[in-house]
Amino acid sequence: MKTVKKILLSKIYVWIVLATAVFFAFGYAKGVFRSNEGDVQSSSVVQYVKDAEEVVFLNAGIEKIVSKENNTNVFGLFNLPASQKKSIIVLKYIAKFGIKSAPKITSNGEHKYTITLPKYEVIGIELNKTQPYELYDTSGGLLSLSTEDVDTGELVSKGLSTKEQTKYLKAYVKDITASAKNYYATLLKGVDPDIELTFKTTN
């Protein structure tokens, strides 16, 4: 009896820890203790309010495939064979091209005007409303367990960047110009049916 009492007294902190663990385990099992998720808080500040003179001349429906592959690198010397992880995403969106400042209009005589269009720019993008992007495929090699997963959010962001859209803008300069000419001809001939327009571009 004395031996048992001695053990209990010398190891009392162990019994306290065990009793506490059992108490909390019982509490969670019975729903006494619950995780309390905090409310999401956000704040915003309006940096500026500015009149916009943007005009969209061309909408291009684009379906783009973006892929990336990660590997486990050994001491910065070589990639571990069969360690690759790869993801392929299909993006679907509309790229909008036009101008962000007013064109310069110069009179060349009665009913004659020259319209100098400013440099074309990417006005913005509009994601496909039903399916903006689709994770087409993911794959991994036999030794890919230690390889970092591909950040699909990064893939989407890269595919929708202004830098990427600028490539399409350069490819469609002629189409944007044709649309711009038609836009201003229709707009101004509604005011003056006899108007003669000459167009200049800076692209």
Protein model, in words:
It is a single chain. This protein has 203 residues and is α+β, with helices and mostly antiparallel strands. The chain folds into 2 domains: 1-33; 55-201, no CATH class. 31% of the residues lie in helices and 33% in strands. It has 5 helices and 9 strands; from the N terminus they run ααββββββββαααβ. It has helices spanning 2-10, 12-29, 152-159, 162-171, 173-189, and strands at residues 55-70, 73-74, 78-79, 85-99, 104-109, 112-117, 121-127, 133-140, 196-201. Strands 1, 4, 7 and 8 form a 4-stranded antiparallel sheet that branches. The longest helix is centred in the N-terminal third of the chain and has 18 residues, at 12-29. The radius of gyration is 32 Å and the shape is elongated. Mean pLDDT is 81; it is low at 1-12.
Q: Number of folding domains?
A: 2
Q: Give the CA-based shape.
A: elongated
Biggest sheet, in brief? 4 strands, antiparallel
Q: What's the N-to-C terminus distance?
A: 98 Å
By secondary-structure content and strand pairing, the structural class works out as: alpha+beta
Q: In percent, how much strand structure appears in the residues?
A: 25-35%
Structure annotation, total helices: 5
How many E strands?
9
Helices and strands, in N-to-C order?
HHEEEEEEEEHHHE
Overall radius of gyration: 32 Å
Q: Show unreliable segments.
A: 1-12
Task: Give the structure's gist in a few sentences.
With 203 residues, the protein is an alpha+beta fold. The chain has helices at 2-10, 12-29, 152-159, 162-171, 173-189; strands at residues 55-70, 73-74, 78-79, 85-99, 104-109, 112-117, 121-127, 133-140, 196-201. A hairpin with a 3-residue loop joins strand 2 and strand 3 (78-79).
